[in-house]
């Protein structure tokens, strides 16, 4: 009964949400309202047309929810899997187009979300395996159930292996890049006393007794590199064309 409810939920919320993402009716209506009552100059028009950026705080947990539903209810009602697959196929095509051609990219996370996504995907897989074991135990298949005990154990071992093998790449700065930055820093600021600088480097300027001379940022240290998208390339080319005109 619950699986039937979630099949309907995936069709109504998931498929309709993807269609609404393509149409973007709310931003379209807001643009026309701003264009009618607020736009006075060309800069105001550009601001009204700004689509914003993709909200990872809402979109990424939503995708994980549908993935979890597919994992959990697949042993009980495999009929839910085609609906989940269709949702992710449409979501891939739509969000790929929106990220490249519509949304502005405000930051580059360098796959910082992936460890959390990986942990939750494997957690959903383990829940699915336990549900399958419970379902088979009610069908007088105890021998098969005993064999399936190895599945969650191997899945947990795989999670621990991936955590120990790859998590450091997401939470620690690469040693080679750190050596390059240290070398450049010594060349540009040979007299910089790093210990004195770090004593109040993370203190708010209001609470500092004296302002130390800050080193020049090396290799754009304070700015994360952004991947060029189609929309960003168009926006960057507009000022150049205006200057040529």
From TrEMBL:
UniProt KW keywords: Membrane, Transmembrane, Transmembrane helix
Compositionally biased residues, Polar residues: 226-245
InterPro entries in the cross-refs: Csc1-like, CSC1/OSCA1-like_7TM
Region entry Disordered, spans: 214-245
Stretches that traverse the bilayer: 72-95
Residue span, CSC1/OSCA1-like 7TM region domain: 2-136
Record-linked PANTHER family: OS05G0393800 PROTEIN, PROBABLE MEMBRANE PROTEIN DUF221-RELATED
UniProt-recorded name of the protein: CSC1/OSCA1-like 7TM region domain-containing protein
